[in-house]
Structures are given as C-alpha cells and as structure tokens.
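TODO from last week: model Conserved domain protein.
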Amino acid sequence: MRNRFMIHRKGHSVASALLFILLIAHLLLPPLAWLGSAAGFPLGNLFSSEGVRWYYLHIQDCYRSPFMAVVFPVVLVLGAIERSGLFGIIKDSISKGVPFLTYRQRKACLMAGTFLLLYLAGMLLLLLGPHAILLSVTGHLYPSPFVSGILQTMSLGFVLTSLLYAVLSFHLRGWEECLSVLYWGIQRYDVWILISMLAVQLYNALCYVWNGA
C-alpha cells in the first residue's frame, strides 16, 4: 500500500510539473511569435487579426483530435479495471503466478470472462459474418467502420466486463459505487486528460506559428 501511495504521489508530481510547463509554454508562445514576426521571421502572429480568428476557429480541435480519441478510452479502461478490483488480481497473477481468490471472486471472474468472450465473438460476427457490416462497402478491412471504432468498442467491452466483475464479486456495493466504475478513470486521471488537451492545443498553435499562416 505504501509503495502504491509513493507511486501515485510521484506520478502526481510529474503531472503537476508537466502541467506547469505546458501553461508556461502557452503563455510564452504568442509574445515570442509576435517578436519573431516583427523581426522579419516567417512566423504566424497569434496577436494579429488572422491569428485571433485562427485561434477561435480551432479552439475545439483539442477535443476532436485523434490523440484525445485514444486518451479517453484508455483512461476509462484503466480506471474501470482499477475501481472494479481486477487490477489487484492482474497484479497478483503477474507477481505470484496464481492469485488467491475467494469462491465469489472466482465465480465473478468466470462470468466476466465469459461475457468478454461473447462480446468479442459478437464483434467478430459483425466483421466476418455473412453480411460483414463492419467492413467497408468494398469489403476491405481498412478503411472500414471496424478500424475506425475498434478502440472505442474494445474499451466499452473492458469497462462493461469490469463493471460486471465488481457487481458479481461484491467488490463494490450499491448502485452508486458500481456506477463509479464507468467514470473512475476520468476522476483518477483527470490531470492527465487536461495535460493531453493542453498538449494538443499547443501543438496546433506551434504548427500555425511555424507555418507562418
């Protein structure tokens, strides 16, 4: 428990440092770009009318970026596995080989594992079945609806599996605690989500400045 607390504290310190660096970079980029453009360098000026229009037109890009489309599902899965109690079982399986499980935990693992297998089988049926509705209209795997939504669909499967285990194993009691599996990742890794959004926005601003638009 103490090691886990120390790891969490160290991770929080790293996140705070990254957040501070990103905020400073956001504050310094506009004046530095303005000084560079005033000195004759081909840099985009975020203080110009064109720069202000660009900023307002692209301020939502950090929410719609492909990077954030990866961050959110991963965060949800990590939080769900941790909150449901599956993280401890996975950790013991890696460190000790065969973890000690109570009868209720073994039954919950069996039911949750069966659900996950059925979930994956359903995805394969939609992909390889007679109609193959997840393939492209030309019958190819890439690009296709399957590839576009594979990460989000898989994350949903793991989150539901974690929720099922938490309910059946009585690791969480009451509907409020059980539903916390769905949003625990956002609550647990909220600072990393903010860091990801600021990083995407800073990258977009750097691209604008560098291209001299």
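Done. The chain has one domain: 2-211.
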